[in-house]
Amino acid sequence: MFWRDQGWLLWATFLGFVASAHSIRRDEFFPFGQSAGDQVLEPENDRTQRLDLSAPLLFYDRSFDSIFINTNGFVATEEPPSESTYLGKMPPSFGMIAALHGDLDTSAGVGKVFFRQDSRADVLRRAAEHINRAFPYNDEVDPTHAVVVTWVDVAPHTPHTRGDGLEKKRNSFQLVLASLQKASYAILLYARDGVQFSSTLVQGSDVIMHGGFSKGLVPGFWFTSQGPYYRTTSDEEISVRELAEQTNSGQRGVWVYEIGTSPTFSDVSPGEVTDLPTEPPPFLAQTTEPSWPLYTGEQVKNDPEQIEIHSNQYQPLQPHDPEVVELDETEINVDVFSYNFGTCSNNRNKCSQFADCRDYSSGFCCHCRPGFYGNGIQCVAEGKPQRMNGKIHGRVFVGSSPYPVELGGVDLHSYVVVNDGRSYVAISDIPETLGPSLLPLSVLGGVIGWAFALEQPGYRNGFSVIGGEFTREAEVTFMPWNEKLIIRQEFKGTDELDHLVVKTTLEGKVPEMPLGSTVTMDPYAEIYQYGSNLITSSSTREYKVNMPDGSTETRTYQCRQTITFQSCQHGDSLRDVKPSQMLSVDQVFVLYDVNNKILRYAMSNKVGDVNGGEPEENPCFTGRHGCDNNAVCRPGQGSQFTCECAAGFLGNGRDCDDIDECRENPQICGYNAVCNNQPGTYRCECEDGFQFGSDSRTCVEVDRPVNHCEDGTHDCDTPERAQCSYTGSSSFICSCLPGYVGDGRNCQDIDECQSRRCHQDADCFNTPGSFACRCRQGYRGDGSYCYSDRRRTRCEEERDSLLGGTVFGPRGPRPSESHIPACDGNGEYEPLQCDRRTGSCWCVDRNGVEVRGTRSAPGRTPMCIHDDGGPPDVRPTPRPDVDPLPPGTHLLFAQSGRIEHVPLESYEMRKEGAKAVLHLPERVIIGVAYDCVEKVVYWTDITSPAISKASIQGGEPTTVIRTDLGSPEGITVDHIGRTIFWTDSMKDRIEVASLDGSRRRVIVDSDLINPRAIVADPVHGHLYWTDWNREAPKIETSYMDGSNRRVLVQNDLGLPNGLTYDFQSSLLCWADAGTHKMECMHPDRGDRTSVLEGIQYPFGITSYGRKIFYTDWKRNAVVAMDRHSGRESDEFQPAKQTKLYGITSAYSQCPPGRNYCSVNNGGCTHLCLATPNGQTTCS
Question: Could you tell me one molecular function GO term of this UniProt entry (predicted)?
């Protein structure tokens, strides 16, 4: 069956993309079958056919003049060997582009494999639209050649034995290879219900089917090795099933990859759009069908040269898994214009770019140029489809209910095919208590039908008269009980994409209709009366209600509306507008989708004579013409007509391609501007450092920021005492250097000797910014530790062995997790011993053995005496230092294709200072980590895959690790030991390496399923990570060398995505997207507490003092919460509204603390990995 009815096709398209973004269907594949010019691969289990190419295919860094089509779901760059050598293997030993590779069968009439080369304009246009939609931040491409390969109803070679029944299942999918001179792309399409099995039998065992790209074996100097490869599926069945449900191109079931470039090539690059589209893709909005039919299993004849006149028939369509794309709640800035006295010389910029300004004796007016229509302030191209977006607010009472239904900003989307007057409206998130009762109110979106109605000869639709800035108020009165609803709509003109913007408010009452009711509406007409700046209309509408019990009722309501606007009073722009016009509305379709809470309207609109007049037979006035959606229908004599592409498009009228004005005229935007092509038009944007001047067209230079730190014009203290840090714009931060205290503008030396930094048998000497320790006479050592020449006592030997007998730095002793005994002046055990970590104290005898029953709680001191002594001196327990917040701290977070930062001031986000640090548009960045020593950010990239770094103070990104990675996700930096740790969710392991990527080592490679977040506590030698294995999620810990591994948390977890460790409070906190909670614990105590509940979908998390910051996929935001109050305190939404991934705190100064790797790399020649017991592992 063909999609030959334009009404059906566009309604299906509109519902599918504006309202549902459904999985692609087989009839939405690129045309295939023998009628499309395809060859058919000979039926067999393992059949290959060579295809010589008329234009080369670029694959990785090579160019190929021929490819090989194979039954088993792939295309090869060389003739593949017997299937027994490669089935079940990914990557194989030869070059392979695998759409869905397994042991497939087309023999005995089961399935077919079609293939062809194609350079027809509509095929190349569809390929370009898929590619450009998948890579929205790249330059647009226009392929010159395509290869289309389609596997239809292919079955597994042997009977499937996974409990699927006796009847074999079938898979259908398509591969399109699109090439231009310097790049090639793979477009993969997986139909809804087209992936019915995910494994095939290989040597008697079920093996998961594979998708991906492999270069094959690569020759080396001595031997060949496996070359690079990229997998689009994993070894899990769900990864195969998700091919038809997910996307990287903005359309579910469609996947796009850049697979080869010239003259250089790095890695396969996947599409960057995982969200669903907000409007129909242009190639699916066409109302004309392809010039060949789709494959239906038999040959069908079709004359591509014949223009058919189609009849409009509307039928309801129930799309699969519909969704409605949400609009931002924030108001859309659209400047509303009003005419004032003046001349064109100083008001020309107030007209549309597609309008001319004309002076009159009393003022000026704007007039749209030929090929465009509107009021001169807004002009749109004739024949171009139009869209409307907005929000609906209000309170509506239903029936006798005393409580109104609140509408807090639900989305309204509308789409109009101007050249035949059909309009479609979708309203999302309408509760079922209100949805059925709004079914008769087609008037909600009817104004868009009037604005762009199909014009009869001599009559004009609403937009051509008043443009897109007006206010509409409609009063709807329902009979016979006089329920009344007021609809107020404020139309704010067109936005930068030429979409009409509207704000709607509903107030009043509607009759109740029970859930499950449906409504049918008869055609109706409205008389519009046109006056000066005022339009009025009234009508009575009849509708039939079909009740759930099968009964029907016929009801009516009256609608009176007024439209106010401001026109140009100086010219004669409204003189040719007839004072009365009739809007005829028929083929009305209304539907409430209760499962998805979506309200839909569709109708056909024409504006003409109030008396009806003779019916027009010309297809231009009936809408049955078959012109391209982006074309104008020009009437001729009788039923003759021609199709003419709209302004900004080029073609024969039946097939119109967008003109790239930016490419045709590179200087069209002028100096210091960038041109961005749009469908049917273009948009100019000023380069960085420039902004539009007063004429809104010329880019003028903005005040450039000044780096006061670099110029020496700051007011920080001297460089010996303070540091100036540039923070962007013309801002800077002053911070005191280590050893000084103050606000950065006035720094005072810290007397470290006051805090007893030296050994008890040493003297301390304060110096500017530092201090020195010197052992007293009769003692030896470096001052941090001193010992006498006499023979050491048992207490001293125990103390010295725990300290390791190593050299201490001038900033104090290294920390140890074991208790270091306190010895008196004679070297004997002090009777009172206290643990500096826990704060508890106890008594010991002369041999250092703890006296039972004397251990106290933290903060208390027991009375301890030896047998021959009195009570010890009572001493206060030391209070830990409270360091002030260091200035210059930032948050770094990842979005797909960029890393951004938000400055912190105290504990608050300074959102106005947020900006992107790195632009990496071809990458999907997951994890981020920060090295506070060298001011370097590290990140994981799952597209290459790779681990890379870059200085946030400037410099090019550098790849640190690019080999033997599957899917690197979490990453953390040990700033003391100078190492990085990361998780790999595909390799199921945790690795460590030096900061430059050398000395790489696997430390955990067992009992991991989906490791993600990872954090380090280098001061105490601990490592923590999450595993979001859906069957058994957990949080684990180990020493930093991977030893002493244990599970910390394994109960009441869902999807523990984010993890952070706060060095000040020693709290380990995590965010769980499954339980929607944030929880914390001290790892050594197990005191798990919930700090925040009801979060939506957290991904990354980081801590800074009392604040915890996390990224949320649902909110597309960085959210701040106060750990002390347990409440969210702030939210930052970046300008680019896509998913946010990892987040980390970038401290202006490193956190305090040392470990045994601090000095001389712990004596290791390679990796130094700290452990809590004071030892190190050298690796």
Answer: Wnt receptor activity
**Is the predicted pLDDT of residue 664 greater than 60, yes or no?**
yes
The answer to whether 333 touches 650, Cβ cutoff 8 Å, is no
> With 90 as the cut, is the pLDDT of residue 1056 above it?
yes
Answer yes or no: are the C-beta atoms of 837 and 817 closer than 8 Å.
yes
CB 372 within 8 A of CB 463: no
Task: Examine the pLDDT at 333 and tell me if it is beyond 50.
Answer: no
> Does residue 1061 surpass a pLDDT of 70?
yes
pLDDT at 715: 92
- On whether the CB atoms of residues 1069 and 1078 are closer than 8 A, the answer is yes
Mean pLDDT rounded to a whole number for the chain: 81
> What's the CA gap between 383 and 373, in Å, rounded?
10
For residue 570, CA distances in Å to 296, 358, 360, 388, 484 come to 61, 10, 6, 30, 39
Rounded Cα gap, residues 812 and 757, in angstroms: 5
Q: Provide the pLDDT for residue 317.
A: 32
> What is each CA distance from 180 to 141, 248, 422, 677, 894, in whole angstroms?
8, 21, 37, 19, 32
Nearest-angstrom CA–CA distance, 66 and 1131:
54
SS3 (DSSP) at 515: coil
Residue 741 pLDDT > 70: yes
Q: Which of 347, 367, 364 is closest to 356 using CA atoms? A: 367
Residue 919 has pLDDT above 90, yes or no: no
Banded pLDDT at 393 (limits 50, 70, 90): very high
Residues 6+ apart with CB under 8 A from 767: none
pLDDT at position 276, please?
60
**Which 3-state string (H, E, C) describes 32-48?**
CCHHHCCEECCCCCCCE
CA angle 775, 779, 785 (to 5 degrees): 55
Nearest to 299 by CA among 114, 526, 503: 114
DSSP code of residue 133: H
Q: Are 488 and 472 in contact (CB under 8 A)?
A: yes
Separation CA 128–CA 183 (nearest Å): 12
575: CB partners within 8 A, 6+ apart = none
Q: Which of 22, 205, 190, 184 is nearest to 95 (CA)?
A: 184
Long-range contacts, stretch 456-459, CB < 8 angstroms, 24+ apart: 456/606, 456/607, 456/608, 456/609, 456/613, 456/616, 456/621, 457/616, 457/621, 457/635, 458/578, 458/609, 459/578, 459/581, 459/607, 459/608, 459/609
Lookup result for tokens 């004359």: 303
Amino acid at 995: L
Please answer whether residues 284 and 17 qualify as being in contact, where contact means their C-beta atoms are separated by less than 8 angstroms. yes
CB neighbour burial string for 690-714, b if at least 16 within 10 angstroms, e if fewer: beeeeeeebbeeeeeeebbbeeeeb
